[in-house]
Every structure is written in structure tokens, then in C-alpha cells.
Design a protein that fits this description.
This protein is of the alpha+beta class. 66% of the residues lie in helices and 10% in strands.
Length: 408
């Protein structure tokens, strides 16, 4: 495989805007959120387990209010750990834990023991200050994260001093705890913001690159089509017209007709390599089956009716199938497939007829713009190219497209 082929295949596997949802397009952002959730889960497990052990060790008597505070904060903590592991509901459970911890922190001075408190022994609620900080990083916008990183440690320091009745021994230890949690909290918020910014930058750059690539590919396709059609008009259509103008004998006229038929076929199939087909006979039943397959691909449940038998040359079957497909597509696009019916009728060895009808509001074929090739090229030109005929009858009661081919 060459380098160019590998690059093309890689680009083809990249989801492009419009083909996928926004969730899939923010690939780096989603992966970074998953990484942050895992890191938060590991940190919350370590600090939360330390807080839980400390709470159980220092719980000397069964205090209902103290047990209630532990349940309020540790149950959401456990739920957040489970969600971080599973990668689902992380933001919700982290937000619930943050609110539960804030409630416990505000109630701490009224529930905690104020007697025989040792200043150098941090209470279990201290170990959860930064756990609440990383929960805010996961659950809330950047403003809330910064606000908690700045205010949360001071709230803890205040309630800790209240527990110690603002004793002198508590000020030094509490100041150290507050400064430590303040610095660590700001570092965690800064890291979360930095990693998310990098991921968003990667996603934005990727989106711009894919958009530029799509625009360049579209421009190249348009230019390629323009060159192909120009070459076709010059080499085939113009040559056929010149041959027809100069034809003076039956042989020259027959040759000009063959050239014109080939040019019309190539023009009708300008969007893909022309496959004119052969003169090998194709059964009418195969053409009907091909149209049934086309109807199924469009998600329609109508039945393609087939009457009579016979066979037509392969090139004729190809042209009639493509023209009928275009007529069916027009009925779906412009008449919403109302009353859509497809009938294939074989006339033995003499010919074939295909009718595509609908009961839409109809249109005036003479008013179709010259740049609309759905009828002129895909239906009329295709049938003319194989020596067939195509008629379009349309009024306010509906539209009937009749494709016919006869050996005569």
C-alpha cells in the first residue's frame, strides 16, 4: 500500500461533520473526560478511605447525629467511585457528593465534639476537602471549581477553629491545613482546565482540518467532473454532431447515429464510468427483480408488477433500469411516493414497456430548468441512447413516466 492510499483510507475512516453527532466529533474531549474520571476515582478512593478509617477509629460512642453525617457524605462518595469505574453518571454523583460534603462541613461545628480535641489530629472531614474539589472539577463549570478551591479551605479552617473554640493552639495547625488544601485545590483545578483545553484544542483543530479537507475534496470533485464533461462534449458529442452534419450516405448516417447513441449514453452516465452493456439477451423478469431491489433500497413497500415475458438486449435493460430508478426517485422526492406504482410489461420478442406512476400534485415538464438533468439526461437521454422512448404525462392528478423499447 502506498503512502497516498494509506492517507486516503485514514481520512475515509475519520467521521466528518454532518455524518455523525457532536458526541462522536469531540473524540479527544470525551477521552479526556474519561481519563479525568478515572484519576478522580483513584484520588477519591485514597483520600476517602483515609477519612472513613479515621471516622471509624475516632467514633468512640454511637452518636446518631455523627453517624448520620457520615452516611450523608460517604454514601454519595461510594456512588461516585462506582460511577467513575463504570464511566457513567460521574457528573451527577460527583455533584451530589459535593453538595453533601458542603452540608456536612457547615454542620460540623454543631455536631463535632468540642472536648478533649487535639489540635494536631485532623478530623476525618479534613481529608475530604480536596475530594470535594475534584468532584467540583468533574461536575461543575470552571467558575464553581475556582470558587471552591479558594473558599472551601477557609470554610474548613473556620469550622475547625470553631470546634477548638478558637484556641491559640489551633491557629497554627489550621493555618497549615488551610494553606495545604488551598494550594492543592488550585493545582487540581489548573490541571483539569489545562487538560480539557488541550483536548478541546485537538478536537477543534481536527474539525477544521476535516472541514478544509472536505472542502478541498469537493472542489476537486467539481473540477474533475467539469473537465470530464468538457472532454466528453468535445470528444464525443461534438464529433457526433459533426458526423451527422456531414453524413451524405446511408452508411455515414448509420455511423453518425451510432456515434450519437454512444455519446448520449456516456453523457447520461457522466457521474460514473459508462457501462453501455452488450447485446446479450436479458429476461424481463430480471429487470423487474432489479426494480424490486431498487424499491426496497428506498425503504418502500410497494409491489413491482410484472406482466408478459420476453427478453431485451443487456444494454437496453441497463438503460431502462437506470431510467426507471430515476423516475422512482423523482416520485419519492417530489411526490412523497403517494400512489407510487411500477409496472413492467414484456411484449415477447418485440419489446418492453415500464411505467412509473404516482398521484402527486404533478408538474409541467416544459418548465423544468435546463440545468436539471434528472429528466433530460437520466431518463430521456438514456432511453434515446438505446433507441428507446420516454414520455412524461403529468397534471394535478399525478405523473406517469412511460419507458418503451421496440426492436422495430
Amino acid at each position: 500500500m502506498s503512502a497516498d492510499q494509506g492517507l486516503r483510507e485514514a481520512w475515509e475512516k475519520i467521521p466528518t461533520p454532518g455524518e455523525v453527532g457532536q458526541e462522536l466529533e469531540r473524540f479527544a474531549g470525551r477521552r479526556m473526560e474519561r481519563i479525568i474520571a478515572i484519576v478522580v476515582g483513584v484520588g477519591a478512593l485514597a483520600l476517602g478511605a483515609q477519612a472513613l478509617v479515621t471516622a471509624l477509629v475516632t467514633l468512640q460512642v454511637v452518636d446518631a447525629s455523627h453517624l448520620t453525617m457520615m452516611a450523608v457524605v460517604f454514601v454519595p462518595w461510594l456512588a461516585m467511585l462506582v460511577c467513575c469505574t463504570l464511566g457513567r453518571g460521574v457528573r451527577l454523583t460527583a455533584g451530589i457528593f459535593f453538595v453533601a460534603y458542603l452540608i456536612d462541613l457547615l454542620l460540623w461545628p454543631f455536631v463535632a465534639n468540642h472536648k478533649d480535641v487535639v489540635p494536631t489530629e485532623q478530623p476525618w472531614i479534613f481529608f475530604l476537602v480536596n475530594v470535594a474539589g475534584v468532584a467540583a472539577v468533574v461536575a461543575f463549570p470552571l467558575g464553581v471549581q475556582v470558587a471552591w478551591a479558594l473558599v472551601g479551605p477557609f470554610i474548613y479552617g473556620t469550622v475547625r477553629l470553631m470546634q477548638g473554640d478558637f484556641g491559640p493552639d489551633f491557629w497554627i495547625v489550621t493555618a497549615f491545613d488551610v494553606s495545604f488544601t488551598l494550594i492543592l485545590g488550585l493545582v487540581l483545578v489548573a490541571l483539569g482546565w489545562m487538560f480539557r483545553s488541550v483536548a478541546n484544542g485537538v478536537d477543534d483543530a481536527r474539525g477544521r482540518a476535516v472541514a478544509l479537507y472536505t472542502e478541498a475534496a469537493s472542489a476537486e470533485a467539481v473540477e474533475h467532473e467539469r473537465v470530464a464533461v468538457a472532454a466528453l462534449m468535445h470528444d464525443s458529442v461534438l464529433a457526433a454532431l459533426i458526423a451527422a452534419e456531414r453524413a451524405g450516405t446511408d452508411r455515414e448516417r448509420a455511423l453518425a447515429m451510432d456515434m450519437a447513441r454512444e455519446a448520449l449514453t456516456r453523457l447520461a452516465n457522466a457521474e460514473a464510468p459508462a457501462q453501455e452493456g452488450s447485446d446479450e439477451p436479458v429476461e424481463v423478469e430480471l429487470l423487474a427483480e432489479d426494480l424490486r431491489h431498487a424499491v426496497t433500497q428506498l425503504g418502500l413497500t410497494i409491489e413491482v408488477e410484472q406482466f408478459g415475458h420476453g427478453a431485451v438486449p443487456d444494454r437496453v435493460a441497463r438503460a431502462m433500469a437506470l431510467a426507471a430508478r430515476q423516475a422512482i426517485g423523482n416520485a419519492v422526492a417530489h411526490a412523497s411516493a403517494r400512489g407510487l406504482a411500477v409496472v413492467v410489461e414484456g411484449h415477447g420478442d418485440t419489446g418492453l414497456t415500464v411505467k412509473v406512476s404516482d398521484t402527486g400534485s404533478g408538474f409541467d415538464p416544459s418548465q423544468v430548468g435546463a440545468d436539471r438533468l434528472g429528466i433530460r439526461a437520466s431518463i430521456l437521454a438514456r432511453m434515446t441512447a438505446v433507441g428507446g422512448s420516454a414520455t412524461i404525462d403529468s397534471d394535478r392528478r399525478g405523473t406517469v413516466v412511460t419507458l418503451g423499447w421496440s426492436r422495430t
